Amino acid sequence: MTLFEKIIAREIPATIAHEDEHCIAIHDIDPQAPVHLLVIPKRVITRVGEAQQTDANLLGHLLLTAGQLARALGLAEGFRIVINNGPHGGEAVPHLHVHLLGGRPLTWPPG
């Protein structure tokens, strides 16, 4: 069971910003920007590189939810959405999740 599955099951505490039937959004415990949320599907998809066509609606829901949260948090100046894939992509938890970052100017390239 991944860390995120334990958070979804309420076995590990987290600061929840949003929850619906498909996903949960929590505040990152090591924020890289003033706003740093993780939008996590309740159904486990290990990583975006392993997603299937049957996951399309859920993947779209995650992005739409991130956009709604950005608007609700007043990130009109801009924000970044990041999905890490695999060890070289910065993936720390093998459970797909969307990082929503904002609240300060974000540079490019990211790292």
Automatic annotation (TrEMBL):
<feature type="domain" description="HIT">
    <location>
        <begin position="3"/>
        <end position="111"/>
    </location>
</feature>
<dbReference type="GO" id="GO:0003824">
    <property type="term" value="F:catalytic activity"/>
</dbReference>
<dbReference type="InterPro" id="IPR011146">
    <property type="entry name" value="HIT-like"/>
</dbReference>
<dbReference type="Pfam" id="PF01230">
    <property type="entry name" value="HIT"/>
</dbReference>
<dbReference type="InterPro" id="IPR036265">
    <property type="entry name" value="HIT-like_sf"/>
</dbReference>
<feature type="short sequence motif" description="Histidine triad motif">
    <location>
        <begin position="95"/>
        <end position="99"/>
    </location>
</feature>
<feature type="active site" description="Tele-AMP-histidine intermediate">
    <location>
        <position position="97"/>
    </location>
</feature>
<protein>
    <submittedName>
        <fullName>Histidine triad nucleotide-binding protein</fullName>
    </submittedName>
</protein>
<dbReference type="InterPro" id="IPR001310">
    <property type="entry name" value="Histidine_triad_HIT"/>
</dbReference>
